[in-house]
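Q: May I have one protein plus its fold?
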Amino acid sequence: MARPLGLRSLAILALAFAVTAGADKPAEAAGNSVTGLPVPRFVSLKADKVNVRNGPNRNHDVAWIFSRAGLPVEVTAEFETWRRIRDSDGSEGWVYHSLLSSRRTALIAPWKKEGTVPLRDEPAETAEVVAQLEPGVLGTVRECNGKFCYLEGKGFEGYVAQPELFGVYPDEKIE
């Protein structure tokens, strides 16, 4: 005959259940990440070929494949060695952590279908325009002051208004 559980045993059992109940779920809240880094955050792709999977392990199907290193993606969750990412189109999937880099990059207004974005010589709306960048141009983020980011890319360098970039948050400051 089984002995009834005492109050202390019930409390220990409840605590153990509470601790393990979310163990198989991704860490999504800021400060509740596997790495201790903020979630969400922007990173970039480290490799030219990156498989994006439907779930956080190699048993899940490949949903699509990125074929360009340096593209910015947003980490929206972490699970063990896997990161759920969102791309500039809003598509989400899981990527193995070692295929991501902390190097900050940005795409020029990938949501625009036509037109260009001014590249300026100073971080101000009144600064001289030194180039017009097409939507989808990729650059490395060197700094942001919350309104403008200094970008470097193939054949250009200068300041772009922060709202025109995918790869940085509004008002984010990067030194």
Summary: The CA atoms of residues 117 and 133 lie 5 Å apart.
